[in-house]
Specification:
Elements lengths: L1 H17 L5 H12 L6 H7 L7 H5 L1 H8 L10 H16 L9 H14 L10 H15 L5 H12 L7 H9 L9 H15 L5 E8 L6 E9 L2 E5 L7 E6 L5 E5 L8 E5 L4 E5 L3 H20 L4 H161 L3 H63 L16 E2 L2 E2 L4 H18 L1
Antiparallel strand pairs: 1-2, 1-7, 2-3, 3-4, 5-6, 6-7, 8-9
Helix pairs in contact: 1-6, 2-6, 7-10, 7-11, 8-11, 13-14
Length: about 575
């Protein structure tokens, strides 16, 4: 009841401050008793508002009377929208801006009610920048537009420099000016304000069209469902004029998905203590959204928590109070630090004077030290010059030795490169010989296959001649075999042609390998001449002749029989000369 009383007081405050002082209490009290369903006696009402000093209102002011005779008797069985509309009617004409706005009077009324919900609990009522940002974000999201944070930050800075927040009428002017809804038409802005109004004021957590299965006729009818913190109401249409029933929610309710049946899809079930309701959503996404929304509402009922937007508002207020307390504490600490800083400044001034005296003494000592340093520097400069000359001579000697060493290393690298190229030439020659042998074997195999194919071809030809000489009775039976053999003969001829082509390719490969072998032999001979010219001591391993080689105990000999005979004759001649 305390929260309800605070909400009612904000709207009443607007109405009371807008009326003339001489008739404000009586007119307002009569209207409040009517819309709040509070029983009142017209005679007693006149008694309370007598013009002398004996009436309770005159002696104690209007607020004690309002609390005692009206607000304490409110039971909550009244229409909040109708109550707010009555207060709006009393205050709007006097306070609403005369300049044209982009929103209608109905939208301005809803913004005014939202202001009372989000404003601070102190008078005169204002809405702080944080709550303005929250409201503008909600409206922007409802319009499907992007939130302009940078634009609001500039507006917030300008606002903070002049005041703490906005009044209800300034907030209506801000939203009605279209500053934060540029590019949107009046209808889109109106629908967005209505959606935020339903959520924050009417506690509408979700709404939309769905199909509901009847309990008696078992037929399916389309209804407009409205989910609130403790009830789901369903109407004929979204204008909410023809209400068909309520689904009372409590902590014992549950909701579960159902499989498709009877031609209906996206089904789910709401189980209550006395009834069960089958509902069909328009698609799977809507079905899941409704199930999650109802489950969240039931969870809040079980936990005894308020609706999400009210809980969020309370958390924002607590956070602002906490930040305000922290700011006050920070200001207190800053004052203490400032006082301590002044004391430190005095101490630093004393220390500064002491340091100036010490600096004067240090300057005199520094002057003496610099004079001594100059003398030492001159002496060190002479020694450094002598050292540089000695170092330059040593560097020249090192450079000369390095040049000689580099030439020697270059000669060694050239010899190593020549040896490496010689080995590569020998490997190429060896590979060429192996390729030649492979080609020869391939040619021999192809010739053997060609001979076998020719023999087989002749055999098939003889069999064909014998088949022709058979009797007429056997001719019909063997005709098929002859056709098959002719086909085999054609295949054999094709294979023979293919072997012929392969033989030609083998001959071409043989010629190519032969050319490579000759090239490798020429390269080997060229490298032999180069190495012999360069060193005079290296003997190349030349490719031997195709004549049979001699075999020794260690393998094939490195010379032929002719070379052996030539060496024998040379040894005999040398032996005869020596004798």
């Amino acid at each position: 009841m305390v929260g309800l009383k605070e909400e009612l007081l904000k709207s009443i405050w607007h109405a009371f401050t807008a009326l003339d002082l001489d008739r404000s209490g009586k007119v307002l009290s009569h209207n409040l008793c009517t819309v709040l369903n509070v029983p009142h006696d017209p005679v007693a009402l006149e008694e309370h508002f007598r013009d002398d000093d004996e009436g309770p209102v005159s002696n104690q002011g209007y607020m004690p009377y309002l609390n005692k005779f009206i607000l304490e008797k409110v039971q909550g069985n009244f229409d909040k929208v109708e109550f707010n509309r009555m207060c709006w009617t009393l205050c709007a004409k006097k306070n609403l801006s005369k300049s044209p706005l982009l929103i209608s009077d109905e939208d301005a009324f809803k913004v005014w009610v939202i202001f009372n919900f989000l404003s601070e609990d102190k008078y005169p009522l204002i809405i702080v920048p944080e709550e303005i940002e929250y409201l503008l974000k909600k409206i922007t999201e409802a319009m499907g537009a992007g939130w302009q944070q940078e634009q609001f930050d500039h507006y917030k800075i300008a606002l903070n420099t002049s005041r703490e927040g906005l009044s209800a009428w300034e907030l209506i002017d801000l939203i009605g000016s279209g500053q934060f809804s540029k590019g949107m038409d009046r209808q889109t802005v109106s629908m967005a304000i209505n959606e935020v109004f339903n959520e924050l004021i009417l506690d509408v957590l979700k709404q939309g069209y769905m199909l509901k299965k009847g309990h008696k006729r078992k037929n399916w009818m389309e209804r407009w469902f409205v989910l609130k913190p403790n009830v789901i109401s369903y109407y004929v249409s979204e204008d909410l004029k023809d209400k068909k029933g309520d689904i009372i929610l409590d902590g014992n309710c549950c909701v579960e998905a159902l499989p498709d049946k009877d031609g209906k899809k996206c089904l789910f079930l709401i189980k209550c203590l006395d009834k069960t309701f089958e509902i069909s959503a328009s698609d799977k996404k809507k079905k899941q959204e409704w199930i999650q929304a109802i489950q969240s509402t039931v969870s809040l009922l079980r936990a005894g928590s308020p609706p999400p937007h009210k809980e969020a508002r309370q958390k924002r207020k607590e956070l602002r109070q906490k930040l305000l307390a922290e700011q006050e504490e920070l200001e207190r600490q800053m004052k203490e630090l400032q006082a301590a800083n002044e004391n430190k400044q005095k101490e630093l001034e004393t220390v500064r004077k002491q340091l100036e005296a010490a600096a004067a003494r240090a300057a005199e000592e520094e002057k003496k030290r610099l004079q001594t340093q100059v003398e030492l520097q001159d002496r060190f400069s002479l020694e450094l010059e002598r050292e540089k000359m000695v170092r330059q001579k040593m560097e020249e000697q090192v450079a000369q030795k390095s040049s000689e060493l580099e030439q020697y290393l270059q000669r060694v690298r050239e010899l190593e490169e020549m040896y490496k190229q010689l080995q590569e030439a020998l490997e190429d020659e060896k590979q060429a010989r192996q390729d030649e042998e492979t080609v020869r074997k391939l040619q021999a195999r192809l010739l053997e296959e060609e001979t076998a194919k020719r023999a087989e071809l002749e055999k098939w030809h003889l069999q064909q001649q014998q088949t022709i000489q058979m009797t007429e009775a056997e001719k019909q039976e063997l005709e098929n075999q002859r056709m098959m053999k002719e086909q085999a003969l054609q295949v054999a001829m094709q294979q023979l042609k293919q072997l012929e082509l392969e033989r030609k390719e083998a001959l071409e490969q043989y010629e190519e390998v032969k050319k490579k072998l000759e090239t490798a032999a020429n390269n080997t001979k060229s490298w032999k001449d180069k190495v012999a010219h360069h060193e005079g001591l290296i003997r190349l391993i030349e490719p031997g002749s195709k004549n049979p080689h001699l075999i020794t105990n260690w393998g094939p000999a490195a010379f032929t029989e002719a070379e052996l005979e030539e060496r024998q004759r040379s040894w005999k001649g040398k032996k005869a000369t020596s004798e």
